[in-house]
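We modelled each protein-ligand pair independently. The example shown here corresponds to the pyridoxal-5'-phosphate entry; the chain sequence is given first, followed by the ligand as SMILES.
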Amino acid sequence: MPTKAEELYERRKRVLPLSMGIFTPTSAESAKGSTVIDADGRELIDFGGGIGVLNAGHCPEPVVKAIQEQAAKLIHTCFPVSIYELYLELAEKLAEIFPHHTKADDCTKVMMTNSGAEAVENAIKIARQATKRQAVICYSGAFHGRSMMAMSLTSKTMLKQDCGPFAPEIYRIPFPYYNPKIHSMSEDVFCEFHLNELRKHFVTTVAAKSVAAILIEPVQGEGGFNVTPKAYLQGLREICDEHGIMLVIDEVQSGFGRTGKWAAYEHYGIKPDISTWAKSMGSGMPIGCVIAKGSVFDSINPSTLGGTYLGNPVCCAASLATIKYMEEININALGEKVGGIVRKRFEEFQAKYPQLIGEVRGLGAMLAFELSVDGDILKPDVNGGKKLVDFAAEHGVILLSAGVNSNVIRTLTPLVISEEQLNKGLDVIEAGLKMLAD
Ligand SMILES: Cc1ncc(COP(=O)(O)O)c(C=O)c1O
């Protein structure tokens, strides 16, 4: 007799496009914290957090309550039609946590969106209008979403097959992935080399005076948890300042405590001109935002930003309650704690299975290991990721891969996970590595 989950997958085949991905072969009926109960009543440990959406956990009580109360009071007006205080309260809170302005006579402003992709779309619209320039520089391995502009900015070719033509005036440069095992120079020299490559790019490919924005993830999410080196992002800030280019930082996956700070860019001691957010901002409700210097936002044309549902009252209530709850539980300390435990275990896995793991990397609790043939980081194990993810699902753990070769095993656990549950999940990953090694 088929399980309920098997039945659901059969129904899915009949009524949904086959092209829609299946990242892990699991199902969900209900969830709390870091535990999911699947369609057959089985308990699963969540290491994926709905792709980084659940830093505060599944169904946090104050968030559920805020959603319920708000839904009973006011679900929709469309903010430009009738304003409501919740949107303003959320914008004020976000501007307080993520100040972007650097001058006393400037300020920080916020625009809500429905998703990360929509935040990226709008960030580019804003940067172009503010600079009166068109070109956008982005990176290999980047992921910025699936709408037309966001997909054009995304790197992985498999996600874009036959979808073109893509948006014009996009220039992709290599992501500054540094690994002392394969680069014989120091990290500082490596960063200087890559910053110089960018300066050369202005001469050989697109003039700096034509560039509206440079868009970068501080830690690449879908690209495989590649951490931007500190000196590189600091250098990028200087180059943007020198040439009047908007530095746009995409924090959709790395934000809200995931790296042990509200914003991953805080690790770098810099501020963006514009930033994009979504995912854990609303504990699963569809809300994102663009944050920018007030001077940038207010330089653009009237009526060029908008959307029916942006900052819907129920989503704003969920986001405000999420942020308040995150403050109460000290989400950043939890990010650091979870990150410390996972890193230690991943390093032990690498020491035990050097033939499987080419690298352990990440920032805070945004941690991953890369499966490589013979442990050689230059030889991605293109089959290992799926095997390990399937093994984990069979043994009660929702696990996600990442990377352009889907061979990077990443952790995006709710940060409220208990140490015991975290270690239980890590034990399953370890057993999966043993299965791969045997
Ligand atoms: C860094 C980054 N930017 C943008 C997006 C797109 O967000 P959404 O799926 O909400 O459109 C994602 C999604 O994974 C992401 O990781």
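The chain has 13 helices and 15 strands.
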